[in-house]
Fold:
Amino acid sequence: MGCHSIWGNGGTLGPDFATVGAGASLQQLAGMFWNHTPRMIETVRARGIEWPTFTEAEMADIISYVYYVKLFDEPGDPELGARWFLEKRCIVCHEVGGSGGDIGPALDRYARYLAPILLAQGMWNHGQKMREAQSERGIPTPTFVGREVADLQAYIRRASLLRDRNVELLPPPDPNRGRSLFSTKGCVRCHGQGGRGTPFGPNLLMATQRLGVAEIAGQLWNHSAQMEQAMQARGVTFPQFEDTEMADVIAFLYYLRFYDTEGDARKGQVLFAEKGCAKCHARDGTPRLGPDLSMSQAVLTPMGLATAMWDHAPAMYDLIRVRDDVEWPRFEGDEMRDLSVYLRSRAAAARSSGPGRTNR
Ligand code: HEC
Ligand code: HEC
Ligand code: HEC
Structure:
């Protein structure tokens, strides 16, 4: 907090965590943390602060938190929202702030919320009837791109007769509850465990990659008519959502990307050499500067690797600084993930070769 802010609250030395690293997975964020260790080591030393070390669980929590805060999108644009309300013909059937049609209910009550989730949930729950009303009148069923749902919410908040009332704050979305709702609401029957897809529904990890909450909500709506048909065909009742249920399911979808851990060990092996790790970390029992990582407990999990690297960063930094054959390794894209898969597979091989042979 001394150096970084979240939505502008906190220090100004480092970037704001609400905007940096959007859409990055756990290991990409770990890579980003790692990349800035040299500067951080210098800053911390110059200020006489101790290097913050982490347990594996703490590192997982802190990266998860940095990922989580991005779930709270910025509010939409009420000007654009007014335009969508007109163009998408919501105004034909819905009243807001005393003007609009009365074929559907007035939408003023949604003005109590900041986030657009409840609006999206209302549309989902009433989707079937709404689509009927639309087709009776020859009005095309609206679809959403980008942050249009958030814009609509911002417009409803501005135009509504309730606008001066207090905001109703909802409990923060809970991806773990979302995971169980994903099962109990039947999503898992077509989209599979962890949303990885089945012949009856697409892989949602790809579909939700890099999307924020308002965008995922829009996407859910866009597909809801077809999903409803698919559900009817498979005898699944179209689920209704209450209170924060849709927000929780969306948080779960948002977190799918976080745990992207399947990497490429061959690429990882190349990286181990290219990034200079091999120069210090013995692979063959010859004396080197750093420990043999295939014997390390730390490399057995992605978080363990990230934590151990972080905690040892100052020691590595001092060693690298006095050598001219190694540069400070930096990680882009999924390199950290691939390196982790490689180190894990080596550690597993060393362990299965049994005691006595591990120091070959
Ligand atoms: C052709 C008319 C029509 C259009 C156009 C239409 N709706 Fe609706 N909408 C309805 C009807 C009818 C209902 C109530 C359905 C029911 O009773 O289940 C409804 C329900 C809703 C609800 C749930 C209301 C509640 O009280 O919980 C929301 C939210 C909503 N619509 C939003 C929208 C938005 C946003 C748009 C534009 C993108 C839109 N609607 C366009 C007819 C329409
Ligand atoms: C009966 C099968 C079925 C069930 C149950 C189901 N879906 Fe789907 N879902 C589909 C199909 C089929 C598509 C693709 C539809 C299309 O292309 O418009 C889809 C599309 C989606 C998409 C958009 C994916 C993309 O590629 O853009 C999301 C998000 C989604 N579903 C989430 C959910 C959630 C959340 C639930 C549970 C509330 C759910 N689905 C339940 C079959 C299902
Ligand atoms: C200049 C030498 C050097 C380079 C280059 C280097 N390391 Fe290290 N590394 C060390 C030293 C020395 C230690 C032990 C530091 C300590 O004990 O505090 C260490 C410790 C570690 C640990 C902790 C092991 C454990 O079991 O706690 C991991 C993991 C690690 N390094 C991974 C890497 C990776 C991955 C790379 C390449 C991206 C790399 N290192 C590059 C010198 C280096």
